[in-house]
TrEMBL record:
This is Flagellar protein FlgN. Residues 88-118 form a coiled coil. Residues 134-161 are annotated as: Disordered. It holds the Pfam family FlgN. Keywords: Bacterial flagellum biogenesis, Cell projection, Cilium, Coiled coil, Flagellum. GO terms for biological process: bacterial-type flagellum assembly. Gene3D superfamilies: FlgN-like.
Amino acid sequence: MLKMMTATLDELITIQQQLIRYAERKQTVLIEHKIDELTELVKEETRLIRRLGQLEDERESLVTEVLEEHPGLSFSEFTEQVPDEAARRALQEQLTTLKQLLLELQAKNRQNEKLVQDSVDFIQGMIGHITTPVKQPYNYPPKSGAAPKQSTNRGFFDTKA
């Protein structure tokens, strides 16, 4: 069972590393506004996340089995009591690595989320700028003796050609 646990953790680590690489590529793609490439990255990332979910389910069932075989112990306590020194160290290193990778992935995802939010804010600002009602007419002001024409305060897209 310990070998199954280490194999599952190894695969989880590999997928986390791939997700980090994808997050880095997404950052570049977001900065360069390559939408098609971003779409492909998101598809691949979704596939990896599904596999990650399956592995996480496997890991949870293995942990449950371990805790049923060793009642009264938490998983951390179990890892400290693994009789084989090399296996114990390897398991603890895997768990530490997995935690570090998770933190790194979360940080990269936060950066990417900020980039996306900045892009959305920019687009909304541009749309607002284009559709905001115009306070001044586009042509010359009326002659001094004529009554001023009422402005309809139309936006850029609401004007007639």
